[in-house]
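FORM 12-B: Structure-to-Sequence Request
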């Protein structure tokens, strides 16, 4: 290894252009590729800005050429030389620096490298566990660097926009009180208060409300949050939110502000103009039309309610309706050519949602239909189905008859499967959608109690407040989610700002006065000291960065992510700790597999 004495980097590898021709430059980076042409040695030198081809010619400086023979992939190099145009016919138009190369007069090996476990390029598929074990190498790959840098640009643009709108960036505690907010808390034992625990925040919800009570009327922070829950490709045990809260604001003002934010983010990061205002649909409408509260509106295939038709001759449909269920359908345009195996394969994917089968009718020429169920449907009912679905020759109508939940979940999944099969998804589109007027509460049949659909601090619609005492299930919330291309990227609400309404909400949720005082006494007290009307919203930064980067997993946009088992294979965390640490915390483990 050689030292860097006397050398200062003057340029990044990926920033040289034809304008630099004739300049003496000092570059530093990693050897991406080395090619020995039996005299000349070419090395692609890489840093985070890109690649530059350097040339080692024995007739220019023999010592530099000799050192170049030692170089292997991922050696760290310093190279001094003069920028020159590439010879005619060798320009690489796919490379930002493809018009030039650097003829080297001095080469230093700053550090050699073992052979890496995988190639550092965009093209090789690598097992994810291997990538995460050697994440420091994976992070060198141009594709991953692009994702991480995009995320930086995203959070920078968020701050720029909100600073310009008068928001204050205020930190809230990481060690806080465990409160029921829907998911399990990560607990932290207190050494100086034996037997007591802090919790890592699932969100800064209560603190940002306290900031509104304290008079800081426009707050935000880009903050770590923690939830001990089952993981998926777009979830992590620790995740990052853009968290916001405002006083003296209503839903319309908040939505207008957020639409401006996302138009700014997409312009700055992706160079894409986003039209505003965004589409708005109520919770009831999206559930009726799409079967879920975060629909992908880049394509149609909407659900069609057929529950009002006459199914007296078809007991399967009739029984579902008699038991309070629904009959709904999707018209699969052009799906008449699907084989029975194709339909069976899709049906299997729906069984996880409780579907017992998938009925269908293929529309043929001359008013003919192909289906196992047409014999159970009267001519009038069959005609009404086809007309209502807008089905034409070559289409296939898919039916689901079951409980409302099974129908919604199954047809929502079918909608996605058909869109992929029919190639209906335009990945260049960004369809933003506000979903509003969520139910305030949802009933847990097993526990025989009400749960907050969002969280216990969400305000009911003003006109629905009397229903808290008479018909809680009919109460709508001042809540709103922002959906993008089938992903919920953020959600929030106007909050309860009156102590008596908050107490009534706790009572409905089965949180008695004593428990409410024990868990939320500080909030109830604060609400009695002149709390302004306020509301806010939070966005999943990881998820937004994932969509902007065009990848399918948030792990690609997090520098050091956890696996789907909530472990870090790089550091081998979580890990066992020694008995001395446990004794200091007054903790004894009873069972470890």
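FORM 12-B RESPONSE
SEQUENCE OUT:
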């Amino acid at each position: 290894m050689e030292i860097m004495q006397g050398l200062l980097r003057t340029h990044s590898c990926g920033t040289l252009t034809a304008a630099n021709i004739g300049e003496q430059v000092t570059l530093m980076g990693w050897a991406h590729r080395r090619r020995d042409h039996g005299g000349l040695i070419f090395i692609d030198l890489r840093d985070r800005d890109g690649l530059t081809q350097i040339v080692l010619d024995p007739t220019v400086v023999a010592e530099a050429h000799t050192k170049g023979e030692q170089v292997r992939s991922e050696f760290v190099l310093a190279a001094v030389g003069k920028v020159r145009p590439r010879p005619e016919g060798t320009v690489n138009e796919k490379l930002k620096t493809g018009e030039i190369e650097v003829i080297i007069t001095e080469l230093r090996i700053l550090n050699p490298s073992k052979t890496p476990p995988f190639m550092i390029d965009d093209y090789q598929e690598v097992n994810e566990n291997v990538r995460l074990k050697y994440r420091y190498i994976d992070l060198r790959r141009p594709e991953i660097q692009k994702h991480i840098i995009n995320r930086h640009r995203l959070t920078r643009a968020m701050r720029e926009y909100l600073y310009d709108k008068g928001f204050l960036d205020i930190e809230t505690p990481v060690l806080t009180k465990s409160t029921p907010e829907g998911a399990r808390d990560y607990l932290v034992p207190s050494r100086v208060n034996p037997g007591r625990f802090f919790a890592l925040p699932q969100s800064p919800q209560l603190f940002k409300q306290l900031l509104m009570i304290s008079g800081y009327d426009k707050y935000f922070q880009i903050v770590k949050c923690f939830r001990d829950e089952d993981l998926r490709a777009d979830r992590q045990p620790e995740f990052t939110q853009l968290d916001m809260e405002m006083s003296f604001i209503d839903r319309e003002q908040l939505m207008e502000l957020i639409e401006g934010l996302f138009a700014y983010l997409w312009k700055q990061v992706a160079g894409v103009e986003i039209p505003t205002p965004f589409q708005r649909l109520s919770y009831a409408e999206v559930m009726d039309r799409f079967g879920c509260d975060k629909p992908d509106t880049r394509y149609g295939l909407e659900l069609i309610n057929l529950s009002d038709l006459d199914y007296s001759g078809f007991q399967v449909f009739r029984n579902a309706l008699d038991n309070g269920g629904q009959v709904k359908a999707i018209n699969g345009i052009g799906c008449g050519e699907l084989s029975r195996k194709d339909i069976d394969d899709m049906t299997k994917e729906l069984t996880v949602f409780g579907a017992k089968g998938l009925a269908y009718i293929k529309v043929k020429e001359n008013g003919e239909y192909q289906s196992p169920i047409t014999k159970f449907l009267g001519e009038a009912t069959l005609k009404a189905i086809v007309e209502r679905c807008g089905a034409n020759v070559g289409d296939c109508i898919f039916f689901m008859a079951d409980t409302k939940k099974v129908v919604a979940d199954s047809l929502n999944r079918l909608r996605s499967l058909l869109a992929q099969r029919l190639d209906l998804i335009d990945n260049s589109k960004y369809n933003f959608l506000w979903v509003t007027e969520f139910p305030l509460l949802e009933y847990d049949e097993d526990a025989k109690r009400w749960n907050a659909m969002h969280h216990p601090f969400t305000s009911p619609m003003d006109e629905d407040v009397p229903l808290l005492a008479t018909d809680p299930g009919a109460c709508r919330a001042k809540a709103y989610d922002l959906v993008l291309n089938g992903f919920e990227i953020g959600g929030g609400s106007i909050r309860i700002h009156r102590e008596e309404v908050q107490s009534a909400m706790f009572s409905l949720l089965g949180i008695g006065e004593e428990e409410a005082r024990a868990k939320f006494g500080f909030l109830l007290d604060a609400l009695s000291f002149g709390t302004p009307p306020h509301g806010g919203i939070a966005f999943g930064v990881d998820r937004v960065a994932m969509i902007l980067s065009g990848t399918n997993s948030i792990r690609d946009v997090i520098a050091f992510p956890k696996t789907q088992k909530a472990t870090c294979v790089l550091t081998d965390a979580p890990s066992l700790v020694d008995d001395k640490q446990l004794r200091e915390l007054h903790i004894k483990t009873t069972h470890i597999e």
